[in-house]
């Protein structure tokens, strides 16, 4: 059973989401918070696997809440539930360690699949949001996020893997596409992350779009 904390300043949204999520019988909502501060306290009480975090909330928004939770326990996964009018918050949440981004209108079965994927170490992000994020990173701050492309030597195999990461494929799916063992893909992924200087697949995908690698 996957333990979930829901964070949204609209209690009726959290209650509706709690009801639909728990019908899947794969997740259990241990608590609902109205802001990032309350979410942190629930994390300390219940040690959840995943936090589903809204962005725009009073007192402590989703980006701040993500930072608080990741500083407390980086193993807790944070999935941002977002809408397209929250540009700045999406960017800051990414910087603060959010593991995934999905739209609030996502179907419940798809959200459960995202939750399970994130638990297994695969960052999930809507392609439209991914493109939007890549355009929002301010030019003067790009060096704070990534190394410049001129200083990175990527071979054709690594570029193929990056392309499939942007498409949202898992390591096993990439291995099947390229005809390699899954362990080989894991090694290639580790090498790519080290070369580029990003920490996970989500940041890698943003980097790839930002630098026209795909």
Q: What is the makeup of the main sheet? A: 5 strands, parallel
CATH superfamily of the largest domain: Response regulator
Mean pLDDT: 84
Alpha-carbon distance between the two ends = 37 Å
Question: What would you say this structure looks like, in words?
Answer:
With 214 residues, this protein is of the alpha/beta class. The chain folds into 2 domains: 2-136, Response regulator (Rossmann fold); 139-210, Winged helix-like DNA-binding domain superfamily/Winged helix DNA-binding domain (Arc Repressor Mutant, subunit A), CATH 1.10.10. It is built from 11 helices and 5 strands. It has a 5-stranded parallel sheet with strand order 2-1-3-4-5, sandwiched between helices. Helix 4 links the parallel strand 4 (77-82) and strand 5 (100-103). Helix 2 packs parallel to helix 3, helix 6 packs across helix 11 (201-210) and helix 8 (156-166) crosses helix 10 (182-196).
Task: Please tag this protein with its features.
214 residues; alpha/beta; Arc Repressor Mutant, subunit A; 5-stranded parallel β-sheet; 11 helices
Provide the fold topology:
Layout: E1 2-7, H1 11-22, E2 27-33, H2 36-46, E3 50-54, H3 62-72, E4 77-82, H4 87-95, E5 100-103, H5 108-119, H6 127-136, H7 142-145, H8 156-166, H9 171-178, H10 182-196, H11 201-210
Parallel strand pairs: 1-2, 1-3, 3-4, 4-5
Gist?
This protein is α/β, with parallel strands linked by helices and 214 residues long. The chain is built from eleven helices and five strands.
